[in-house]
Amino acid sequence: MVRAIVGANWGDEGKGKITDMLAKDSDIIIRFQGGSNAGHTIINNYGKFALHLLPSGVFYHHTTSIIGNGVALNIPYLLQEIKELESKKVPTPKILVSDRAQILMPYHILQDTYEEARLAGKSFGSTKSGIAPFYSDKYAKIGFQVSELFDEVYLKEKVEQVCEIKNVLFEHLYHKEALKPEEVFQTLLEYRDMVKPYVCDVSFYLQQAIKEGKRILLEGQLGSLKDPDHGIYPMVTSSSTLAAYGAIGAGIPPYEIKNITTVVKAYSSAVGAGAFVSEIFGQEAEELRKRGGDGGEYGATTGRPRRMGWFDAVATKYGCRIQGTTEVALTVLDVLGYLDEIPMCVGYEIDGKVVTEFPTTRLLEKAKPILKKYPGWKSDIRGIRDYQALPKECRDYIDAIEKAIEVPITLVSNGPGREDIIIRK
Ligand code: GDP
Fold this sequence. Notes:
By secondary structure, the chain is of the alpha/beta class. Helices cover 33% and strands 23% of the residues. The chain has twelve helices and 21 strands. A hairpin with a 2-residue loop joins strand 3 and strand 4. Helix 5 crosses helix 6. Bound molecules: guanosine-5'-diphosphate.
């Protein structure tokens, strides 16, 4: 059985925790897109971890953790994360890396940094992890695939060709030092030795696993609205954040994905630029930011304060639809316990018209939120395990969200810990 876990919004929905939970009942966990540009926060018996590249299954003995072909593979970063686990006494996990994954190079990070500087005030708010240049190179067919590391003659020649192209940008657009092919080649040889113990024909491995009835979990990063096709283009990430891409980024048949669990947050937060209709500001935002998540809403990778907003039913209904959601995990509900009334964005006003279907970016930028207020429950709901024991106002708020997004909410998360979860139906 293949299950996907993905986000409905801008990312940071608390997928790390839910993935960690689902990973317990999985045999194989796969990252299928993105790179080290976003992080999952996981709290367990070994401590608190911000995983960026490793799948969330690495804490369990019985699981195999896979970096799929769709990922932007930063090899030194991967090894650093493995080392961090060792230093915190996590038993050595079983890790496999697809031989078809492509390698994120140091020059991708440089390019990302130079480009952000060039765009100055008009930047996209990149995390400067090299993700956009990496995927551009992949599709321009000048990326390096893991399998290519094992053919030195071919590799050397390709490095020369790639540097020729990259150096036009580096020297003439950014006015920076040119890449030296010999140095790039040496870096690739070092990477080869680092990644070698993990390399695997992942899609074949998964085909066998599916035949054997193994439980497979596809772990998404970011959320629907950051998808390059269906998100708020161009303020998006550079790889698909949708469950459907799990089939491609892992190498499995699309029809094997039977369950799509979408993580939805009880309020909104976003990082980077882009339209954010239900955004709040000033004291109201600061209060929610401070109380949000576990220790405040600040980026796991960058430490940047996140932009805050109320739950956006228009964006979330769309985010769930485009994922093909079969069930929803609603997170960080406990955070809202301080509010007398909880506003929810139930529609957008665009050019004087009320809209409830999520529009394209140009229209989205004109949208004004239509807010509806729900009574708050004014209490701490952490520690509650039984759905019926939640305050009535809290259950009403959950029902309202479920009605608005048109998919069943089966899990409710009311705290950052593994045990802070309520199974609803
Ligand atoms: P991800 O990238 O989607 O995993 O999101 P984050 O790493 O940003 O996780 C959000 C933060 O919220 C983390 O610090 C989690 O520990 C925390 N968190 C997750 N679920 C809950 C919850 O239900 N309540 C509270 N208070 N915090 C949560």
